[in-house]
Amino acid sequence: MVNITEQNTLDPMNYSLGESSKHFIIHQQDDLFIAHEYLFQTDIPSRFYHHQADTFLFIIRGELYLQQCTQQNSEQETALKQHQGIWLTAQTINSITLLTPAVELCLIRLKNTGQAELNNSFKKVSSGTVESISGRSHIKTWPLWHGEAGQIALELYPPQFKETLYYQKTATQYLLPLTGIAFISNDKKVPKACPRYGKIIAHKEPRAILNPSNESVTVLSVMTTKNTKGRILLLTKPEGRTL
């Protein structure tokens, strides 16, 4: 496995699915797996998934048609659009058909996602299907899924946004900008734009999200299990040293 430090400095591992289509492994650890797929109708008009573990499918761009067959041979189907997600439960056979020339999707697996938490799992979720809540520092959050294994959410960062430096005590986090450019600061270097394929932030790694633009930024946030008081603020002295 590639460690977190290496993944934040190197391009993701990838392999070809066709002439143009590719599968990128962004992160692969016991508690969290993140992969992106770039699919094109010209060489991958349809694709099958049969995972051994529950996998959350999120559409970054494009549209597709999904058919799912369970072990009891029951079939369900739905269409998924940009920024919608759905659970592909373990051992189900899933077939997707591209409805647009290109589709970019994200595959997410969290450790030990319990079946009891995935009741009525074949239900697409998005900012239009769940109630938004006001998060830290006035961030608007749509909780797409929350369970003992972690949480998946959409977060809206307002214009000219800057938060206090903090770290997660036990949780690993993945951030993927969906609209606009999000910047991440660790208080040691000039803030850097979050890569187009997202960024993995390890537990106890300082971070602060910034949006210096005049437009809101939407981010997909995935976080592994955390303690009740998992977010620790970092106070900074005038000379810049962190307490």
UniProtKB/TrEMBL annotation:
Per the record, the domain of life is Bacteria
User: What is the protein's name according to its record?
Assistant: Uncharacterized protein
